[in-house]
Design a protein that fits this description.
It holds the Pfam family Arm. The chain is mainly α. Among the domains are: about 1-170, no CATH class; about 220-345, copper amine oxidase-like fold (2-Layer Sandwich); about 365-395 and about 410-420, no CATH class. About 60% of the residues lie in helices and about 5% in strands. It contains 58 helices and nine strands. Strands 1-5-4-3-2 form a five-stranded antiparallel beta sheet. A four-stranded antiparallel beta sheet has the order 6-7-8-9, covered by helices on one side. Helix 24 (about 560-570) runs antiparallel to helix 25 and helix 25 (about 575-585) runs parallel beside helix 28 (about 630-650). The N and C termini lie far apart (about 95 Å).
């Protein structure tokens, strides 16, 4: 942020003893908006937002103390201070100090309070942020300290800080494990993380300013000459092929050394040249000024003076290129230029074009010489001009006019192809290391595209390597010498070199890249094909260590290392199999590697490794034997390594299917009974990865693995707990699984895991499992007993989105029970839920709207939601592009309208709200349509609102939906039609729109709710005689007669009322007939 403010932002000059101010320019506006977005995002982060600054940010504010009243703030005389204080100096983290009457100064010491200030500023956020930055020109110094101050030279502060943290961690590890420095180290990690985010923001701001400045590039003489030259080639009398009739420079023919044709005194105003253009659909020529700011029209020549222009402008329009101006002034030109098919072949026709251009220029020169008697000096100037024109014609390919024409596309493509060809030839001669950056044959054969995350990972790795080359440590060169011994030595020298290589810290990236850069990977992979076991073991141990690096992983895959390691899995040596499986587990982190393992039969061989460890007894609580026998220990280790490799491979859907076909499920079920945590972690990790597939979820339930997963939830290993909870989260989609989790006592440990607030991954998995288990009412009852709601409500604040999604989802399921809705209110959860309605995460919005909708079914809760403006926020979510969010918001609005005290007035207070909800009836999503129909049925209870939505065309829109076959939509659609019949001529309008006959078909549905709402709609529609005739013709009487005997009183009454209206109409017709 500091670099951008110093180099990209535009400041006024300092005066009156004060620093400069940020100018009101488009670049500054964009920078401020980006910084504002950053502060609002990071200010909500649970860790960075609470980091206390080295020095507080202070600035004069336009806000007043009344905007900081409520929880968390306290009045201290004329000042306002926060309740929270800095642990360093016991000063308040927020202070609003009164300087004079109506003049205040704000001081904040955390990003969280900075975000609160911006939120309180409302529409004046930018003003407040501008004042803060003007008062604190280098905010990073105040946030993180002087060591991170913005400097003009290379900034190495972050690297020194990383080294400092690393040394402290190492020292802390060597000392007693009392964790005395752990808090300080954690704080430094947060500082580092925030600094990295600020650096990324700096880069984004600099790129933004570059884009902004590049969009304001000014015209130059070569650009103008290029555009004119191309249009001259397309000029002529043919109105079907030529875009203009005539185009040429106007005025004197003298060309300055800077390329401008305008008089020197006009060049001071930015004029480059003047053009005269005659288009086909205008008798008068257009006189155009080419200025550095763009093209615009001038008033043309002065009548009584030859070659003299009136430089005034008939309008204020300025255009970036000549074509845009001509398009705006001539419809014929616009039509012709869009149809134009350019086929200029640069390489073949350059000579012809140059000759034609030279001849034309020469003829024009001779004609001008014959018509005008120039002096010798003028002739010299003319010759110089002709020479300049010839040079410009020969260098035409270097001109870059802003016209986006196919001619230029062809030229650029040819140049690009030539560049690509030269690059390819160079790459063929380069080292294998350099080939990894280009398209290798393996890459070309891939039929898939790598994910964005993987691509970014590879790019970052390349950048890190380029930086590392600047100052390489001695280990880099020592490793390269050893690799040379590997290449040229005998068997003994090779083994010694391998052992020496292992003495280095291969976890360091420098050591890993040293092996790769000198060609060591090829040698190590070649050693895997030898018959010498010791060489294989040594090579695999090194590959296992260095394959943690993303660049090394891809290099191993490119060199065919995975195929060789898959073959080793068949070896009888168990240590070799273990090492090969572990290396495969490291390499198979990206899609192409996982596919290679599957295509070369690696999945079957990895699954067979799981069968090495046998369970020695048949007791239910049996575990893998862990005796001192070497063979048994090796068997267990082989199975563990196989599970580790399958865990990495299981991220591919096709690999999951291959694993299932290879018989992995029963083997994993056996290994799950182990008490060895090192074994359990990869086994459970593989199961939770595969649990996204229905076939695996069924197998996990039927093979009795739920009991083992629940048992391992009680382990002390948090990683194992996390994977078990994640597996339950995915498997609990089915009711049978949820019942099994309750049966084996899994709900209690899940609630216990909610106390691990620091471990976000474990927290996300536990809350996800609680969410899915809470779908069953029997589980909800147990969660009530465990007081899970209170713990979940505490997690609604300062948690990452992956945790919030699950927490809110769980509260939404628990809120289906009326006592729980009251408990959520008592725990203070409703304000947090309403606040989350302003987020952007789509999954979170879906769950929040559901939870708020369930809470709104309680009248006391609805009062709080209304006070917090929650209904307005729900209504605004109807504009969201995600159909799930739209549907969920509409469902939530229904109970809000039902339980609000003055619902009709509340709905009318939303500007454009009724029009918005009616417009959603045009949606193609059935869930959206059903939810909107339900909302309209509630809105239509108020007569004034019904009148408004009728004016917005709700009747024909509802009528168009009546041909649906979806019972859920049918139910709410019929209810909406029944409600809308209570206004004006809506009954007649429904009949006219053809809505009556399709409703009769709804009575054939098997859903009792559809019958009830349809009978109500038919009863209301039957109050119109024409509708009664339509119903009778559609055969409504017979099904209604059956429904009169229904035990549902509402259905009875509506069916009887409809039959009664039809009967009365028939009797009236009889009387009229015999009258």
């Amino acid at each position: 942020m500091g670099q951008a403010l110093q180099r990209a932002a535009q400041w006024t000059s300092a005066k009156d003893g004060c620093g400069g101010k940020l100018e009101f320019t488009p670049i500054n506006e964009d920078l401020l908006n980006s910084i504002l977005k950053f502060v609002e995002t990071v200010g909500k982060s649970p860790e960075e937002s609470q980091l206390v600054f080295k020095n507080p940010l202070r600035w004069h504010t336009s806000l007043n103390p009344s905007q900081f009243q409520g929880a968390g703030f306290t009045d201290s005389g004329d000042d306002v201070v926060s309740d929270k204080k800095s642990p360093k100096d016991d000063q308040p983290l927020f202070l609003m100090h009164k300087l004079a009457k109506d003049t205040y100064e704000i001081s904040v010491q955390t990003l969280g309070y900075g975000e609160q200030v911006l939120r309180a500023a409302g529409d004046k956020k930018i003003v407040e942020l501008r004042s803060c930055l003007e008062a604190n020109r280098d905010p990073v110094v105040f946030l993180l300290g002087e060591r991170f101050a913005t400097v003009e030279t290379d900034d190495n502060s972050i690297f020194r800080y990383i080294e400092e943290i690393t040394k402290e961690i190492e020292q802390n590890a060597k000392q007693s494990a009392d964790g005395s420095n752990s808090a300080e180290i954690e704080e430094k990690k947060i500082v580092l993380r925030l600094r990295l985010k600020l650096l990324r923001l700096d880069e984004q701001l600099m790129n933004l300013s570059i884009q902004k400045m590049s969009s304001e590039v000014r015209l130059s003489p070569p650009t103008v000459d290029g555009e004119v030259s191309i249009l001259q080639q397309l000029s002529g009398d043919d109105e079907e092929r030529c875009v203009v009739e005539y185009i040429d420079y106007y005025g004197e023919t003298f060309v300055s050394k800077n390329g401008c044709r305008a008089q020197p005194w006009r060049q001071l105003h930015g004029d480059i040249c003047y053009l005269c253009v005659r288009v086909h659909d205008n008798d008068n020529p257009l006189y155009i000024t080419a200025n550095t700011s763009g093209y615009y029209l001038n008033n043309g020549p002065v009548n009584d003076k030859a070659n003299h222009l009136d430089y005034g402008r008939p309008d204020s329009n300025t255009y970036r290129d000549l074509v845009s101006l001509l398009k705006s002034k001539s419809a014929k030109f616009s039509e012709l230029i869009d149809k134009q098919e350019f086929a200029l072949k640069v390489e073949q026709n350059d000579k012809k074009k140059i000759e034609m251009s030279e001849n034309r220029d020469h003829e024009e020169s001779e004609q001008k010489h014959s018509n005008e008697h120039h002096t010798r000096n003028e002739k010299d100037q003319q010759m110089e001009k002709d020479k300049n024109q010839k040079n410009r014609t020969q260098n035409k390919k270097k001109l870059e006019p802003s016209l986006k024409w196919k001619a230029l596309d062809i030229e650029e493509n040819i140049l690009q192809k030539e560049q690509d060809t030269s690059v390819t030839k160079t790459e063929k001669k380069s080292k294998t290391v350099q080939r990894l950056k280009s398209k290798t044959p393996i890459d070309a054969e891939d039929s898939f595209s790598e994910s964005d995350t993987e691509s970014e990972e590879e790019e970052e790795a390349v950048e890190r390597r380029a930086e590392a080359n600047a100052d390489l440590p001695s280990e880099y060169w020592q490793i390269q010498k050893l690799v040379k011994y590997l290449k040229g030595g005998n068997q003994t020298a090779t083994i010694i070199a391998l052992c020496s290589l292992r003495d280095f810290n291969l976890a360091l990236e420098t050591c890993q890249l040293a092996i790769r850069d000198v060609g060591g990977l090829e040698v190590l992979i070649n050693l895997l094909d030898t018959e010498e076991v010791k060489c294989k073991i040594g090579a695999l141990k090194i590959l296992r260590e260095i394959s943690c690096n993303s660049q090394i992983r891809r290099a191993i895959a490119d060199l065919g290392g995975l195929q060789t390691m898959v073959k080793i899995l068949r070896d009888s040596n168990k240590e070799l199999k273990c090492l090969a499986a572990e290396t495969i587990a490291n390499v198979a982190k990206f899609r192409r590697a996982r596919r290679t393992v599957r295509q070369h039969g690696g999945i079957k061989r990895l699954v067979s490794l799981l069968d090495c460890a046998q369970i020695r007894n048949n007791k239910p609580d049996s575990a893998l034997v862990t005796t001192d026998k070497p063979d048994t220990e090796k068997d267990v280790e082989v199975a563990r390594c196989g599970a580790l490799a399958l865990w990495s491979c299981s991220k591919s859907k096709k690999n999951k299917e291959a694993m299932r076909k290879a018989g992995s499920i029963p083997l994993l079920a056996k290994l799950l009974k182990s008490t060895n945590e090192d074994m359990l972690i990869p086994v459970v990790g593989t199961l939770q990865e595969c649990a996204s597939e229905p076939s695996y979820r069924l197998a996990i339930r039927t093979e009795g693995m739920i009991e083992d997963l629940v048992q391992n939830l009680k382990s002390s290993n948090q990683e194992l707990q996390m994977h078990c909870a994640s597996a339950i989260f995915k498997c609990a989609e089915e009711k049978e699984t949820r019942d099994l989790v309750r049966k084996f006592g899994g709900l209690d440990p899940l609630v216990t895991l909610l106390s691990n607030v620091e471990n976000k991954e474990l927290l996300a998995a536990a809350t996800g499992a609680i969410w899915k288990c809470a779908i069953s009412p029997e589980n909800v009852q147990r969660f009530e007993e465990l007081k899970a709601i209170d713990q979940l409500v505490t997690l609604l604040n300062n948690q990452p989105e992956e945790v919030l999604v699950n927490v809110v989802g769980a509260l939404g399921e628990l809120a289906k029970a009326p006592p729980n809705r009251m408990q959520i209110r008592k725990s203070g959860g409703i304000p947090y839920l309403v606040n989350l309605l302003t987020g952007t995460n789509q999954a979170l919005l879906v769950n929040v709207t559901r939870a708020v909708g369930k809470c709104a079914e309680e009248p006391d809760n609805m009062i709080i939601i209304d006070k917090l403006d929650g209904v307005r926020l729900l209504w605004s979510l109807l504009k969201n592009q995600n159909t799930d969010v739209q549907a969920s918001a509409a469902w939530a609005i229904c109970p809000c309208i039902e339980n609000a005290k003055d619902a009709g007035e509340m709905v009318r207070s939303f500007v454009g709200g009724l029009e918005l909800i009616v417009s959603l009836l045009k949606s193609d999503d059935k869930e959206v349509l059903a939810s909107v129909c339900a909302a309209i049925a509630n809105i239509a209870k108020d007569e004034e609102n019904l009148a408004v939505i009728t004016d917005h065309g709700v009747v024909p829109m509802l009528a168009k939906l009546t041909n649906t076959t979806d019972d859920k939509l049918r139910r709410h659609l019929a209810e909406a039609i029944a409600r809308c019949c209570n206004w004006g001529n809506n009954r007649t309008a429904f009949g006219r729109e053809g809505a009556v006959a399709p409703l009769v078909k709804y009575l054939k549905s098997s859903d009792e709710n559809v019958h009830r709402s349809t009978a109500r709609a038919l009863y209301q529609l039957s109050k119109n005689p024409e509708n009664c005739i339509t119903m009778h013709e559609a055969g409504v009487v017979q099904p209604l007669m059956k429904m009169v005997g229904s035990p549902d009183e509402d259905l009875q009454e509506a069916a009887a009322g409809c039959i009664g209206n039809i009967r009365r109409l028939a009797l009236a017709n009889e009387r009229a007939k015999y009258a």
